[in-house]
Amino acid sequence: MNSLSRRRFLKISSATVVTAATLSGSWSSIVRSAEKITDKSEKGIRKVATYCDICFWKCGAIAYVKDGKLWKVKGNPLDPLSEGRLCPRGTGGVGAHFDRDRLKSPLIRKSHRGEEKWIEVTWNEALDYIAEKMIKIKSNYGPEAVALFSHGIGGNFFKHTLKAYGSPNISAPSFAQCRGPRDVGFRLTFGEDVSSPERTDIRNARCIVLIGSHLGENMHNTQVQEFAEAIEKDASIIVVDPRYSIAASKAKYYLPIKPGTDLALILAWMNIIINEELYDKEFVDKYGFGFEQFAAEVQQYTPEWAYPETTIEPDVIRATAREMALHKPATLIHPGRHVTWYGDDAQRSRAIAMLNALMGNWGRKGGFYYPQSMDVVAYPYPEYPKSEKGKVDNPDNKYPFAHETITTGIREATLSGKPYPIKGWLVYATNLLQALPNEEETIKAIQNLDLMVVVDVIPSEIAGWADVVLPESIYLERHDDLNVEWFRDPFIAIRQPVVDTPDDQKPNWWMAKKLAEKLGLGHYYPWKDIDEYLEYRITNSGYDYNELKIKGIIQGEKQPIYFDEGVPVEFHTPTGKVEFYSLQLAQAGFDPIPKYKKPKEGPHGYFRLLYGRAPVHSFSRTQSNPVLNDMMNENEIWVNTNIAERYGLENGKYVRLKNQDGVVSNRIKIRVTERIRTDCVYMVHGFGHRSKALRSAYLKGASDAQLITKYEVDPLMGGTAMNVNFVTFEMEV
Amino acid sequence: MARYAMVIDTKKCVGCMDCVVACKTENNVPESFNRDWINFESIGKFPELHLEIRSERCNHCENPPCVHCCPTGASHFSKLGGIILVHHDLCTGCKACLASCPYDARFINPEGYADKCTFCTHRVEKGMNPACVSVCPTHCMYFGDIEDQQNQVSKLLASRKYITLIPEAGTKPHVYYLI
Amino acid sequence: MNELYSTRNNNLIDPYVHVWGWEIPVYLFLGGLVAGMMIISGYFIFNGRYKEEKCSCNFLPIISIIALSLGMFALFLDIEYKVHVWRFYTTFQITSPMSWGSWILIIVYPALAAMFLINPNNMLKEKIPYIKKISEFFSKHPYLVKNIGIGNMILGGMLGIYTGILLSSLVARPLWNSSILGMLFLVSGLSSAAAFVHMIAKDRYERELLAKADNSFLVIELFIFLLFFIGLFTATQVHIDAANLMLSGSYAPVFWVFVIGLGIVIPLFIQSLAVNHKIQHTPVAPILVILGGLLLRFVIVEAGQYSKWITTTLAK
Questions:
Q1: CB-based contact C3 A674, cutoff 8 Å
Q2: Residue of chain C minimizing CA distance to B41
Q3: What are the strands, taking DSSP E only, across A262-395?
Q4: Which of A312, A533, C169, C227 could form a disulfide with A527 if both were Cys (CB 3.0 to 4.6 A apart)?
Q5: Is the ipTM of this complex over 0.90?
Q6: Distance, in angstroms, between A419 CA and closest chain B CA?
Q7: Touching subunits for chain B (3+ Cβ pairs under 8 A)
Q8: Is A361 helix (H, G, I), strand (E, B) or coil?
Q9: pTM of this prediction?
Q10: Within 10 Å of residue C4's Cβ, how many Cβ atoms?
Q11: Chain segment A593-611, per-residue pLDDT in tens
Q12: Which residues, given as ranges, of chain C have pLDDT below 50?
């Protein structure tokens, strides 16, 4: 008995030494918690609770280490988001640790920008270089001249450093290149965002309408889990998509819409619902504003009017409108997430919000619930310096409804020097070359910079253009800020290291803190290390830090999330009501009620390029993960059978795509299929990497981003619509 | 005696491949090989289509050609509920079993032996579900003893329409697809 | 039409099964050839021709041993877990033709050796007195010699049939799902062996005899092919598709031109003329027959792997 426990003790200590060696400082408490977890588990297996970072959903996870080697990651059963089941990317998260293409040590550019030639340097040298340049930029142009592009929770500390430095120019592509128009459309209607994770009550919906949302391929864990649950409960599903998506295959009604005409369909639906008096009268009467004008205006949008636009037959439009009404208020018209499509995106999203309002589903079961969160104190920091110049991205409030910073606005300012010059970019964990439209503009902007820093775990394309590349440890090797989630069930989650970094990578908090110190801003980091920071926040909020470290998740009290559970009915719009007619839009010179505009057609012989997600990859960030690479190592171009026949395209062969501006893609495998319309083609985003250092993904498949040279700007909020490019086929010889 | 089977609800499955990834990490399946996979089979002309999504793997057949054709006894019925396994030490890598499987469920592990799904025997022995079943985000996979009428898999098969793959090959597969 | 999209991409399996390359067809061919030679020399021994100096049964056993060893070497090359090859011989699996085959091969070697020792080469007899002793022993026991002949014919038949059954037992490949493959490979093996002996026999009588025999084998082979395809065409759709692979599909050119045309019909025509003394015996026809036999194994093995049970399980 004695010898057994002694042996176990030795195992534990050797396992924990790894953790302790990773990060110097007072790790004794972590070590203690690790011991406790180890106690319960099998011989040679250590479990650490953390949360996932393969996408931004942040599911709670338990990482397993077997004989000192990272083995697998599973969902944390305590986690309300994943309920113990991760998505394929999360399950494949271990691959990020073993990725052979990872950045290994800090790099400083050797020759000109874009040529991937580097000198390996020490962390001190790299950070000194950055600090020196940043100090110079500050004295020449002011602190606002440095901008930060950041994606995900890992950017929190860099944001803090940049705010301390004095720049307000902090942005993420998730607004202007992704969900921005949706949040604006919903704000204008309900006075609130849809937020992330979306407050959609898919689980309880009796009718789910997906407009271009490809749940199942788009693997946002909670949503897909709830979608499957809804299927099981036999919810009525209506899918609108030019492509017969996975979701479409689950639908009672599949509407193969002509790309770009969604708004016409939504208006026609509303026409039926209003004229047949199928809407939730009580909800609309009580909470609606401007319904009369709205009802009058949609009279013109009959299903017969919408038919030639959308190619959806009037009978189908009627039937689906009635189907929606049948299940109200548990009818959810999903607001989508990546909605920067055609340039009318905020207005289309607003129309979706209004359709939801007609269902009376806001604050109701099966509609949109009110997410809750737990109170966790912030770490007390000195006040940030006030910027005199203000943000650079939206001069003269050109896009009056942009409530977040516009990435492409910063890019524009970097190019033009107006309203003031931008001379430094810090890029954290976002591959701007694949995220922003028109890469040429991005590259030109980069050429205007005095400093370009990229912090990433892999040598992404954007890293290839940096002056300094800082290699970050992956999420299984580092701490991050707390995830204090707004969700159906409120909770706090911790990210903590599971294994050591394989090389000289560092966590973002360490880099951000060290950089601040070198900038003379050390007083903004009063804590010694992140453990102290996290412990402060948790302990001072009245929770047990040790419990959090062991369980990974602390759940809060269940709170009301629907109106009938006691959520106060308040709409933070100017009228305090759900706005079917928007005075603020009218005042700003926009349509107070969304109006349909015909989409622009492409040149003859060209097909609209659509793109989407695969369940096994996140953006362009996971293609070199060996586990996920094994699942899908290149993308394919979906071409309708008839088109393939006409152009002599053979399934499984390769082709290049040429867009309307003459840009030719890398070769891409042809997928001849019945599952798409004849006027468009489709590919999964994130492939066709052109960073040579990303060996396992280099030139595998084609990049949609490369072909997105054209984009339409949403006049309300500056979002960049990207489904406006057209391609034709160039045969591989 | 127990007879383990897998029941997969194609109506709920979205083909996300989490089962494939979980198998990969759980069993250390070598790079570029898979013990399970997804087949997407569609029928019809756009837009009148029907799509069936199936997470496929070794069917742990009751009449397994791979066991019958194995010259060394490496392919065998395990004592655990009819699960078909391969003794790595006995396997010569002759590939007869690969050629004999109508589902093409086997492959040659880079070490040389025939490899395939084990229904995660190492987990089932401990009363756990196979890795693929345990991670499935849509909860579309079920595992259990079909001899036990009270088991969920038995109940599902009693109440739902289902198919098996290539039943005409006479293999009596034990992975069932609810349709 | 169904559209099937699979995420699987396993080596040797996808996009279509190709677990066996050149090694197995070569092994199957050499096995069939040896089977044929065993039957032919067994027959000569059985009817007493072995006493004649020029009888091919005096050198066929040694050629057989060499050919069989080459075949087994090819088989060994195909095995993926080479250090486990001995595992074939630690067990006998009654349902596995491959297990039967490995044990048959083990018996074939001593049978061939025995046949060889009945009338070995004089030089060997002189060099190794032990061989001379055995040979003398055999000459004193003609009844035993007869039985060795019979034994070789039986074993040859088993070996020839086994090479076909090896494939036909593999359920998953519809093209192979015919037990007549055993007969086909046996007759093809006999035909190749007859052609081979016809070509190298020192004795005119044997040459004539084997040319005639080969003609019969070739005719029988055509007949078996006919039965083989009738069998497939009267089975399920997957079997019909499999048959079409060879008759009109991607393997049709090789099958019709090389296996049937150059491998059977043309040599049959040439040899018919030769046995009717219209033309001289040349090695042309035998070589064509032998190459045809080899290609037959290639076509059956390759097309067979390509043929599969369609997974049309979709609810209509």
A1: yes
A2: C4
A3: 288-289, 331-333
A4: A533
A5: yes
A6: 46
A7: A, C
A8: coil
A9: 0.92
A10: 15
A11: 999 999 999 999 999 999 9
A12: 312-316
